[in-house]
Design a protein that fits this description.
Elements: E1 2-7, H1 17-31, E2 35-42, E3 45-50, E4 53-58, H2 66-73, E5 81-85, H3 96-100, E6 106-113, H4 122-137, E7 142-149, E8 154-155, E9 158-162, E10 185-191, H5 200-212, E11 218-224, H6 233-243, E12 250-253, H7 258-267, E13 270-272, H8 288-295, E14 300-302, E15 315-317, H9 327-335, H10 341-351, H11 354-369
Parallel strand pairs: 1-2, 1-5, 5-6, 6-7, 7-9, 10-11, 10-13, 11-12, 13-14, 14-15
Antiparallel strand pairs: 2-3, 3-4, 8-9
Helix pairs in contact: 1-11, 8-10
Length: 370
């Protein structure tokens, strides 16, 4: 079986979480014996990756022409199926229909569904409406949607397959150990392409309120990452930290690759998943980052529903609103935590495998359609 992954994302940038995800997905398919090519755009040049070797196939291609070029120059019908992550709401999606009309073997991944409320502005919302219209119109070209979100029977009148986000556990080191709980400190770590729904400002304000009172623990928060495209969240957070005089308590670090992150995870106690998904009216989220935290063996906090972690003691649920986070409650939870880094990682390795969550299910779905 031979398949193709179409990506507008530059998959050579390994500091970005979505690239790690694409890489681990493709690895899962390749490990199962599927010949899996990737076509992607990097700085105006289209590359195709075959057997992990990149070949330049076109230069001076604008984002809006990406799908047009693929439609005219790549034999899409020669592939058993074509896997495509739903494009970001930009100009490129205006020509998405050109590839959809060529073949009827598309599997489209929706990272978060529903997604319309996550549009950052009016332009993004209009482009997302255009995208939805294309997906409805060319629904006969789409075999299946894979998605991360609450359970549902169909998406845009098509069959859908719900999966959990996963990571490549082989590429992620386990945290060296859970730090001692006797030294009256607690270090948080949040790793993200920063956007408002991460809600890191909630934790920053909560640290400020905690310090205003007689506090027993010294708390630090390491924020690692750059802005999500089109956002200025990092600048907003940095301004907030200056205003609240927390420069020594909240540390900003540029985006790092998996290896560089090891040192930061080793000095941190609790990781931070999204704390403000409610801002986009989305109370369920199966985030990629929480799966990485888990496989690294780090307990974490979140404010949304994620049933992949039901009944897991190493997860602390905050309120899904704008209230101050109960840091005393988190400290108490952490001190009573029975899980070890090894037990947390073992849960992640067993549950969040692309082979189990995606590859086997996609293969089964394709066989049913033959």
């Amino acid at each position: 079986m031979k398949a193709l992954y179409i990506s507008l994302v530059d998959i050579t940038n390994n500091n970005i979480g979505v690239v790690k995800k694409i890489r681990s997905q493709v690895k899962g398919f390749r490990d199962s014996g599927i010949i899996f090519d990737i076509v992607f755009l990097k700085e105006g040049t289209i590359y195709i990756e075959e057997y992990e070797k990149n070949y330049k196939i076109a230069e001076n291609i604008s984002t809006i022409d990406f799908y047009s070029y693929i439609k005219d120059n790549i034999p899409l019908k020669s592939y058993s199926f074509i896997y495509m992550r739903l494009p970001y709401p930009g100009k490129a999606l205006l020509n998405l229909w050109k590839v959809l009309k060529v073949s009827d073997n598309f599997i489209i991944e929706i990272p978060t569904y529903p997604f319309l409320n996550e549009s950052k502005n009016l332009k993004s919302k209009i482009l997302n409406y255009i995208l939805i219209c294309q997906l409805y119109y060319f629904r006969e070209s789409i075999n299946l949607y894979t998605y991360m979100g609450a359970k549902r029977n169909e998406i845009f009148k098509n069959k859908c397959l719900r999966v959990y986000n996963c990571v490549d556990s082989d590429s992620l080191n386990i945290k060296s150990s859970l730090n001692t709980k006797k030294d009256k400190r607690l270090n948080f770590i949040g790793v993200a392409q920063l956007a408002t729904w991460h809600g890191y400002d909630r934790l920053i304000r909560s640290i400020y309120e905690y310090k205003k009172n007689k506090y027993e623990y010294h708390i630090k928060f390491y924020i690692i990452g750059n802005n999500l495209e089109g956002c200025n969240e990092k600048e907003y957070l940095q301004k907030l930290v200056r205003e609240l005089d927390l420069i020594d308590d909240v540390i900003f670090v540029p985006a790092k690759d998996s290896h560089q992150l090891n040192d930061y995870f080793n000095i941190c106690d609790v990781a931070v998943d999204s704390l403000a998904r409610h801002r986009s009216n989305n109370y369920y989220n199966c985030s990629l980052k929480s799966k990485e935290y888990c496989v690294r063996g780090v307990p974490f906090i979140k404010s949304h529903e994620d049933d992949s972690f039901n009944d897991c003691g190493f997860v602390y649920d905050c309120k899904p609103d704008e209230s101050i986070i109960d840091l005393e409650g988190i400290i108490d939870w952490y001190l009573k935590l029975d899980d070890t880094a090894t037990s947390i990682r073992n849960y992640g390795v067993n549950v969040f495998s692309w082979k189990k969550q995606l590859v086997e299910k996609v293969e089964a779905a394709i066989k049913c359609q033959k």
